[in-house]
Amino acid sequence: MRSSNPVFSRRGFSRDNGYAGFNAQPQAGGPAVGTQGNAYAGNNPYAQNPYAQQDLQYGAPPQAPATTGRMTMDDVVMRTATTLGVLVLTAALAWALLPVDTANINKSYGIAIGAGLVAMVLGFVQAFKRKASPPLILAYAALEGVFLGVLSSIVDNYIASGAAMQAVLGTMAVFVAVLVAYKAGWIRVNRRFYGFVMAAAMGFILLMAVNLLFAVFGGGDGLGFRSGGLGIVFGIIGVLLGACFLALDFKQVEDGIAYGAPREEAWLAAFGLTMTLVWIYLEFLRLIAILQGND
Fold first, then answer.
1. Is the dihedral of CA 59, 63, 64, 68 positive or negative?
2. Is residue 113 scored above 80 in pLDDT?
3. Which residues 6+ apart lie within 8 Å of 232 measured at CB?
4. Of 49 and 195, which is predicted with more confidence?
């Protein structure tokens, strides 16, 4: 099973097709073997664990992340904090140094759009790399911060005062709520959950793409999916999808630690979680702008 997050989809900690995933949990004293083995796995219990050969090299079972060189939760927390820290710092600098007054708003907005496009390219590059590149991930975070800083300043100053802080608080609330629900077992991340989230996400993205095309070629807000009453509905759906992505990401990180993923994989986890949090923040920002402003 693969996560909806593009990072985990490419290099995620799923189990199908040779990745660690939802078929089974690691067993005490040895590597986990799925209840439904891969067709090519044969009788080799390590064929289904991407880190099994490393387990043999280290001479330890895959569920022992304390072994030197293995990813731990502390690694994921530290890398995620670093990535988000860079994003927040550059967002604050962009807010302070790129004015959005009448005389400079077009210039600042142009810089933000450019930074956002480069960040998107870097994100795709990292998503398709076989190994994590910390400089690339931090560069993505820095450029994403510039984009979010200017965009948040525009919304805060011209559309809905206080929207940026409300979106930050909303994002934090969703993160904590999903984490608590996941750890308490209220959210069961299984194949059915994954299939539902993926189907909903594909439908959502398709509708947003169609709306964007109509907006570009027809003017206005396209089909109206991102403004008015429909905009509120789709904003709520976007936040809920982001929450589902978080649950999937938590599961993938948990599996990666359980199966003894290499420590550098923590950067990929941080990258994926950052992308999901940015998604949730942007959905909150637009939702608040619609509720309080004229968009």
1. positive
2. yes
3. 287, 290, 291
4. 195
- Is residue 258 within 8 A of residue 224, CB to CB? The reply is no
pLDDT at 39: 36
Determine the Cα–Cα distance for residues 113 and 147; give it in Å rounded to an integer: 6
Q: What distance, in Å, lies between the first and last C-alpha atoms of the chain? A: 39
For residue 175, the model assigns a pLDDT of: 97
Which residues is 262 bridged to in the sheet? Answer: 70
The pTM is what?
0.79
Which of 84, 102, 83, 12 is closest to 51 using CA atoms?
12
Query: pLDDT at residue 120 above 60?
Result: yes
Average the pLDDT over 263-281 and give the result: 94
DSSP letters for 158-196: II-TTHHHHHHHHHHHHHHHHHHHHHTTSS--SHHHHHH
pLDDT at 10 over 50: no
Is 111 buried (19+), middle (13-18) or exposed (0-12) by CB count in 10 A? middle
How many Cβ atoms from other residues are within 10 Å of residue 30's Cβ?
A: 12
| DSSP 8-state secondary structure symbol assigned to residue 138 | H
Cβ–Cβ < 8 Å for 259, 63: yes
Residue pair 163/283 in contact (Cβ under 8 Å)? The answer is: no
Dump pLDDT digits (tens) for 146-167: 999 999 999 999 988 999 999 9
